[in-house]
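Components:
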Amino acid sequence: MCTGEAVRPGGTLRAYRALLGAQARSQTAYRASFLLDLLGNVGATVFDVVTVLVIYGVTRELGGFTLRETLVMVGLSASAFAVADLLVGNIERLPTHVRTGLFDAVLLRPLGALPQLLLMNLPLRKVSRGVFGVGVLVVALTSAGIDWTPARVALAVVAPLAGVVFFGSLFVATATVSFWWVDSGELANSVTYGGRDFTTYPVTIFDGWFRAAFAYGLGFAFVSYQPALALLGRADPLGLPSWAGWAAPAVALVAAALAATAWRTGIRHYRSTGS
Amino acid sequence: MGSVTATVAPATSANVTRWFRTFGALSRAGFRRYSTYRQAAVAGVVTNTVFGFLRCAVLLAAAGSGTVGGYDRAQLATFVWVGQGLLAVVLLWGWSDLADRIRTGDVAADLLRPVHPVTSYLATDLGRAGYAALARLLPPVLVGPLFFDVCLPSRWPTVGLFVVSVVTAVVLCFGCRFLVNATAYWWQDARGPLLLWTLGSGVLAGLYFPLRFLPEWLQLVLWCGTPFPSLLQTPLDVLVERDPPAVQVGLVALQLGWAVLVLAACRLVQRRAERRLVVQGG
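Structure:
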């Protein structure tokens, strides 16, 4: 594929498509396993929702919020995380690529490193999870008794998209750590999967510095909690003004800018492991 | 029986001392192998700690100022924090050594050794669990009480029962993982079964929420019909003294039953697999 000539614009696109096609073929090669994979991936999100339902089975409210209200947050969080995980999530394999030296090969090719990595690993099996996540959001929004205004309709569309950008940035930023710390392994999970768990519940159930760090320091409050309050028309028990829900896209853009900076710095500091 | 297996026939005079020495050596090797990944252990502990805070907050919010599912607040905090540590000790997730070796054909080397594959993998896994008990169980157990009120056992037999329960859980979990990995003997690629295992074990072992939150008939089905509650929920219930002593003993006995059953299944599956195994490649 790499002929050493200058790559024509159409050629770049074709190269990306070839990468994607090769992925699709290889991932569906073991058909039984792929079907189980599809099923299993939707299961992960199903169980997240089941967990919320089970917990509401033993209590009437969580941090002052009813099940219907919490489900809006669950829907926002699940759909944003699932789609970001589908598109960008496999960047978490970067440590492996750095360790095995595959990343050197990626850098040598005349295509962008990040798009290549994402397309090389695009996990098609996670499509099922994205579809289910969006489904949960739609059901939650229609059953929460929201007083729909044009602004709220816009927010209901923009907030999950901002969430995708936010979680995507988080995936990229945390993967960047492996440029410096190859064995960082699970560390990224604490903010990516941890963030998903955090955004599933109302921020009010957490307290102290943990809440300060996750909700406002890392910005997770703006993924689901604040937009959900704005959609439901509830005042924030923690005192943030009502426009905070509409700040979600701005927070996502800041996150994306930080992630891009981290990625560029990481690439510049990258020294091959020599393997 | 006269059946042909790929493993070398064991020595005719079974020497128990030698068997124990081999088992011990393999366990020590497992301990050393995993103790070399120190950075990974640190990263794992940080992640377990973050999830400790998350899960603890959710369960305490559900309890309010009272009890929920038969646990009070201190019991819930202990349940979550010890659970985060035990997760790495029983190693619910992330073991695909056997499946990888089957796919690459390296498993052929395991079959040539004069130790039964189930035995040698179990010995290595016990060594790994020993290291995890130090590096992964202790930190969350020490961090939790700094931020939350936890409960300590009030009856001394609980401590002994807890230790037995944890060791049994490790053996049982190993057996389950072995069975899931062994599907690669038939399918080459065990990713699908591994994923289903990851999913099912997390929720059915009591990691996401204590299984006592479920209706009682469902609890009965899970405990008696599946090995999952015996992996995590049972040791934790024993430790926080959720039940009177007789029930505690009963739960551990049930756990032991599952461990024996699953290990027997491992040996059976291994024997069936060896008859049909074709090592790929040259």
